[in-house]
Amino acid sequence: MALARIARSNLRRSGVGNAYQKDMFNERSHTTKSSLPSSHVDGTFSYISKIKEHNSMNFSMRGISGTPYYRTPSSNTQRVVEESESELEDDRQRYAGLEATKPGEKPRVVVLGTGWAACRFLKGLDTRIYNVVCISPRNHMVFTPLLASTCVGTLEFRSVAEPIGSIQDALSKDSNSHFFLASCTNIDTNKHEVYCETITNDGLSREPYQFKVAYDKLVIASGAEPSTFGIKGVKEHAFFLREVNHAQEIRKRLLLNLMLSENPGISEEEKKRLLHCVVIGGGPTGVEFSGELSDFITKDVREHYTHVKDYIHVTLIEANEILSSFDVSLRQYAMKHLTKSGVRFVRGVVKEVHPQKIVLSDGTEVPYGLLVWSTGVGPSEFVKKLNLPVSPGGRIGVDGWMRVPSVEDVFALGDCAGFLEQTGRPVLPALAQVAERQGKFLVELFNKIGKQDGGKALSANGIPFGDSFVYKHLGSMASVGAYKALVDLRQSKDGKGLSLAGFLSWLVWRSAYLTRVLSWRNRFYVAVNWGTTFVFGRDNSRIG
């Protein structure tokens, strides 16, 4: 280490180093204790101060006499020692946390993330076998299929947020299991440690507060980030739709623009800009949000904002076909229905995003008051900087058992993981059902190896894992507004299967998602919100 080299250099300057080197050749003649740093099992260092102790018996027995070569450390060396101990103390404070489990303790599973994959894994983990630590910048799971409904008030925000403590109650009740509101910044696979940084909000005396957690098994399910394709201005001016706070910001902006447009002195052109809602991306999220907006405009804006009802409209911009994974007939139905509902379709590619307009690749300028970006997801910055195998598309590379090759006891699943090219498997789409089924597969595997004493670090070698993960697509659904939806039950894009569109599909869509909501509490919330909206309309209060 650098500190050791500095100490040696100071020893040489004080004349001690030469004597030390001479006596290296006479190590059988006597034994001494050096002043160089020694490593303890806890990873810290201490300097041995008892340098004066010598085995004088060895000297006298061999008839060797001499002056002890070192009695007192030099002032420079003492300063280095003091500074080193201070730095080590700062490092211990900086990376306080959970140390490695001891013999006799339950193995510790660390889970990064609270998305679909992580929560399905946490829900099924046998806490009689494992202690579990979950680390995530949010303390809840988002039921993403219904998130678009919260943007316009069809559902309340709490209806789509499931607290992590209700998914795995050991995180709230077990003294050896924990949830940490933090982001993982790095992973040391050799030491079996993850390094984290708390969410900064000026609430702690030292910001950002950093800590480490040792693991026996690590599950990376940190999800993905919205793809911006490096387009200038997207992150600064567009809204994404992946988190509850995203939906809250969209709702506040939408209602603010409606109220501002009614103020006196606003020009006709400015009213049109304020009330122009632009959606980028024709996938299920973009289409469902467009459908919710058209419902909101038809049923609520026309009743509560009569002065500006003729100015508000929705434009959906897509480079190719909307709902490209759906059957052709369903895509055509969605286009026809949304067009009839007032949604305008534009085929184009965004070149730049400005505060009040977007510029397409053909030079067309599109003014907007609300811009929602929904063009899919890609690997996060955290995933990109990890020194782990990479699958096509930049995700963490895994094998058929969700293991990360070349490192021990590390698994990855969900949107942040993809099959390595050598497995011969395609990278699965970033869908909730993919992540959920991977989480179910992996937790069953963990419970199996845990019962065979394979839960501890480096202890699963030799335990048969059984069959690898196989994904079978269960179909796709999307709501297009006005009590209409699409249901595509084909197992692949080119396969054959049942395809439905219309009111019956809408009933199937609502029933399916109501049963998929994790808790009975949130199922109750969703059902009550739907009923309230149907009878009384959407709440248009702007809070915050």
From TrEMBL:
Principal location class: mitochondrion
GO CC annotation terms, alphabetical: mitochondrial inner membrane; peroxisome
Superkingdom of source: Eukaryota
GO molecular function, one term: NADH dehydrogenase (quinone) (non-electrogenic) activity
Reaction(s) catalysed by this chain's protein: a ubiquinone + NADH + H(+) = a ubiquinol + NAD(+); a quinone + NADH + H(+) = a quinol + NAD(+)
A Pfam family assignment: Pyr_redox_2
PANTHER family: NADH DEHYDROGENASE, NADH:UBIQUINONE REDUCTASE (NON-ELECTROGENIC)
Protein name: NADH:ubiquinone reductase (non-electrogenic)
Organism expressing this protein natively: Vicia faba
